[in-house]
């Protein structure tokens, strides 16, 4: 096996204090705890308050990574934020985070690949390190999806939650690190999951506020099918590139959108569910932040131990999908 070039160094995450249960949703929408649990595996999610901006959540996650690694904000050469729900559309979320952190030396920019964003950003960071453009790249995924979802639409509102996760990518000083990575997109599927209004094609106007086109629209059943296929492809490609099979993987950390998608993915990769990290029950779908939050939890609770091989896989709007095998 080839020696990894770059490694993920330190982890961090932040999830908002406010827990919203399925039962609370059933008081505002025609839904039930039973329906949500059986169809999605979600029991509750976190909802960020007005003081919990993406910048604040991202900063909290980043500070844990800095503490883990002993680095200071001035050691960061680049700062990449993955998000599809930034605090504001201009400048990038990454520049706002840079200012809050005081990472004065860093280049800062966003990557938008919806729920796949964290894996896309890790791959970009690996490329920067490989090209000697940067020594330490902070990668943060943060989402405040509860501000862009339609609270009156039961087919989407119950699925999403808020939070942030982070890590640093640097040149690997050992055998730890990224063994393979795979990125893929299919823009012809864009309208399965999108926000029709609010951009340059449909700038903000009165109609936008009335027709709810500013919010996430999703063809759930079609997204489900595309998700199962793309997650299977993602696992196949990352394993093949690393010269491994599912049996070599100690822990799978998939995008946390729906327990049924996670189970289908694990089955395809030949992994029993006790080798799969699941927190969709507690956080719902936090889009780009999902794999990042799960990674930090898996490290902190001891599920992911040094020497293990971990595989990440994710899918999202675009359609985008991606995967990565990492020697931890
Ligand atoms: N409560 C009660 N009933 C509901 C709810 C709800 N919250 N939502 C939908 N229903 C109803 C529907 O209206 C439908 O009723 P009908 O038969 O009378 O028309 C019925 O339940 C079945 O609806 P389906 O959409 O067929 O249900 P399904 O089993 O497919 O589950 C779900 C829906 C959970 C959305 C599923 O399709 C799914 O998870 N899809 C993937 C979604 C996803 O992962 N999105 C994230 C993408 S990542 C990103 O980039 C943000």
Strand order of the largest sheet: 1-7-6-4-5
**Whole-angstrom Rg:** 19 Å
Total helices: the number is 11
CATH H-level superfamily of the largest domain: Thiolase/Chalcone synthase
| Poorly predicted regions | none
Question: How much helix, percentage-wise, in residues?
Answer: 25-40%
- Distance N terminus to C terminus? 15 Å
Question: How many strands?
Answer: 13
Indicate the CATH topology of the largest domain. Peroxisomal Thiolase, Chain A, domain 1
Largest sheet at a glance?
5 strands, mixed
Structure class: alpha/beta
Structure description:
This protein is an alpha/beta fold and 328 residues long. It has 2 domains: 170 residues, Peroxisomal Thiolase, Chain A, domain 1 (3-Layer(aba) Sandwich); 150 residues, Thiolase/Chalcone synthase (Peroxisomal Thiolase, Chain A, domain 1), CATH 3.40.47. The protein has 11 helices and 13 strands. The strands form 4 sheets. The chain has a 5-stranded mixed sheet. Strands 8-13-12-11 form a 4-stranded mixed sheet, with helices on both faces. Helix 1 crosses helix 2 and helix 8 runs parallel beside helix 9. The radius of gyration is 19 Å and the shape is globular. The two termini are 15 Å apart. The structure holds acetyl coenzyme *A. Acetyl coenzyme *A (ACO) binds next to helix 2, helix 6 and helix 8.
Helices and strands in order:
Layout: E1 6-14, E2 19-21, H1 22-28, H2 33-40, E3 44-46, H3 54-69, E4 78-82, H4 93-101, E5 107-111, H5 117-130, E6 136-144, H6 154-157, E7 162-171, E8 177-185, E9 193-194, H7 206-211, E10 217-218, H8 220-242, E11 251-254, H9 259-269, H10 280-283, H11 289-300, E12 309-316, E13 320-327
Parallel strand pairs: 4-5, 4-6, 11-12
Antiparallel strand pairs: 1-7, 2-3, 6-7, 8-13, 9-10, 12-13
Helix pairs in contact: 1-2, 3-4, 8-9
The structure holds acetyl coenzyme *A.
Acetyl coenzyme *A binds next to helix 2, helix 6 and helix 8.
């Amino acid at each position: 096996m080839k020696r990894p070039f770059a490694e993920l160094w330190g982890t961090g995450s932040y999830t908002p204090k406010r827990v919203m249960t399925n039962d609370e949703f059933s008081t505002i929408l025609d839904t039930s705890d039973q329906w949500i649990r059986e169809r999605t595996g979600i029991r509750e999610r976190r909802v960020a308050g007005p003081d919990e901006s993406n910048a604040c959540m991202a900063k909290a996650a980043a500070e844990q990574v800095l503490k883990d690694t002993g680095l200071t904000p001035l050691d960061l050469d680049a700062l990449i934020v993955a998000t599809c729900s930034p605090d504001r559309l201009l400048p990038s979320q990454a520049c706002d985070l840079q200012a809050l952190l005081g990472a004065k030396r860093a280049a800062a920019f966003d990557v938008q690949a919806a729920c796949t964003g964290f894996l896309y950003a890790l791959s970009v960071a690996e490329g920067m390190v490989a090209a000697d453009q940067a020594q330490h790249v902070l990668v943060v995924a943060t989402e405040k999806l509860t501000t862009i979802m339609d609270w009156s639409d039961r087919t989407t509102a119950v699925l999403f939650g808020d939070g942030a996760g982070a890590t640093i990518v640097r040149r690997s000083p050992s055998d730890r690190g990224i063994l393979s990575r795979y990125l893929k997109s299919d823009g012809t599927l864009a309208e399965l999951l999108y926000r029709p209004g609010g951009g340059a094609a449909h700038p903000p106007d009165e109609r936008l506020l009335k027709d709810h086109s500013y919010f996430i629209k999703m063809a759930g059943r079609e997204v489900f099918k595309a998700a199962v296929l793309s997650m299977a492809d993602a696992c196949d490609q990352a394993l093949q590139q690393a010269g491994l099979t599912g049996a070599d993987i100690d822990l799978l950390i998939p995008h946390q959108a729906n327990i049924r998608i996670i189970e289908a993915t694990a089955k395809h990769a030949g992994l029993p569910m006790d080798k799969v990290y699941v927190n969709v029950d507690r956080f719902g779908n936090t889009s780009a932040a999902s794999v990042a939050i799960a990674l930090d939890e898996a490290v902190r609770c001891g599920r992911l131990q040094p020497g293990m091989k971990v595989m990440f896989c994710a899918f999202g709007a675009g359609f985008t999908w991606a995967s990565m095998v990492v020697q931890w």
